[in-house]
Write a structure and sequence with these properties.
By secondary structure, this protein is an alpha/beta fold. Helices cover about 20% and strands about 25% of the residues. The protein has two domains: about 210 residues, Quinone Oxidoreductase, Chain A, domain 1 (Alpha-Beta Complex), CATH 3.90.180.10; about 130 residues, Rossmann fold (3-Layer(aba) Sandwich). The strands form four sheets. Strands 3, 4, 5, 8, 9, 16 and 17 form a seven-stranded mixed beta sheet that branches. The protein has a six-stranded parallel beta sheet with strand order 12-11-10-13-14-15, with helices on one face.
């Protein structure tokens, strides 16, 4: 049996989103039914809806920043109860048996995770995301939202928060470390807050100084414009870690020059087109370039608890569902500070 719920979907590549209905599976033995309260709009949603990352599954219900309340649990569920405040991020299943899954790195599952939307679940049905009234998810892929975090501001943490937290933790951002965050957008504004809360010395590298006041308020110690060539001269050999949050082409060689010996540049923005990198620019100081996905389920819970403890949350603009298409256009124009969140009561 299935349940029909209201949702907003993309009917075809690059088409406007429209209100529709979708079918959610019945609550199984280990499933949690969540009444979605808020769903963040991630730039990834737009990439997928526009088929910027390759062929996609339509109709598509985007949304992998989901916060809500448990409405029903299956008879085998032990970790959640009706009324709990919970969240769902970018994945809703994985193989659970490969080395990565067993190590709590489900995001790197050898068989590939089952993504929250634009994927096919183990039941052979398309997955639909959070631009909807409800969602049914296996309890192993649900996380608890601490009481200290408002649900609307917690929703973007399920992608933007963990996408920046995971590499900052992995590359040991903390006291005595100099961290640069490239870009102060949906990802970057979370990276700045988290790096600051971890105790690192934080610098924002942005095209202009337009958002400098915001960057400093969010926890940055320094703010530089990358459009000024003097920035790269004055900061040469400065950083232990550069977290690149933008998905547009940049001059990688110029940014590599900002790394100290053994420094790393980690990319979390995903461009739609391949980018050229001159590997010779890494030579001389054992610098490295890497990437990072989201985090595993345990690390996502760790991130939420960390954010609650340190007062870290997304800065959002709350919108009704009728404004989703407008929000997409504004994201593409960089006209949001810093994350749109849909009030799903309006769906």
């Amino acid at each position: 049996m299935t349940t029909t719920v209201a949702a907003y979907a993309v009917p075809a590549p690059k088409a406007p989103l429209e209100r529709t209905t979708i079918e959610r599976r019945a609550v199984g033995e280990h499933d949690v039914l969540i009444d979605i309260a808020f769903a963040g709009i991630c730039h990834s949603d737009i990439h997928q809806a526009h088929e910027g990352w390759g062929r996609a599954v339509f109709p598509m219900v985007p949304g992998h920043e989901i916060a809500g309340v448990v409405a029903e649990v299956g008879p085998g569920v032990t970790g959640f109860a009706v009324g709990d405040r919970v969240g769902v991020g970018c994945m809703v299943d994985s193989c659970r048996t490969c080395d990565n899954c067993r190590a709590g790195l489900e995001q790197y599952c050898d068989e590939g995770p089952v993504w929250t939307y634009n994927a096919v679940g183990k039941d052979g049905r398309p997955t639909y995301g959070g631009y909807a009234k409800t969602v049914v998810v296996d309890e192993n892929y649900v996380v608890r939202v601490p009481e200290a975090l408002p649900l609307d501001k917690a929703a973007p943490l399920l992608c933007a928060g963990i996408t920046t937290y995971s590499p900052l933790r992995h590359w040991n951002a903390g006291p005595g470390k100099r961290v640069a965050v490239v870009g102060l957008g949906g990802l970057g504004h979370m990276g700045v807050q988290i790096a600051h809360a971890l105790g690192a010395e934080v610098t924002v590298l942005s095209q202009s100084l337009r958002k400098k006041d915001d960057g400093l308020r969010l926890g940055a110690d320094h703010y530089f414009a990358t459009s000024d060539p003097a920035t790269f001269q004055s900061l040469a050999g400065t950083f232990d870690l550069i977290l690149n949050t933008v998905s547009a082409p940049i001059d990688f060689a110029a940014y590599f020059s900002l790394l100290r010996t053994d420094g790393a540049m980690v990319n979390v923005g995903l461009p739609e087109e391949p980018l050229e990198v001159d590997i010779r620019a890494l030579g001389g100081r054992r610098r490295s370039m890497s990437s990072s996905g989201i985090g595993g389920i345990a690390e996502t819970q760790e991130m939420l608890d960390f954010c609650a403890e340190h007062g870290v949350a997304a800065e959002i603009e709350l919108i009704g569902a009728e404004r989703i298409n407008e929000a997409y256009e504004r994201v593409l124009s960089s006209d949001v500070r810093y994350r749109f969140v849909i009030d799903t009561a309006t769906i």
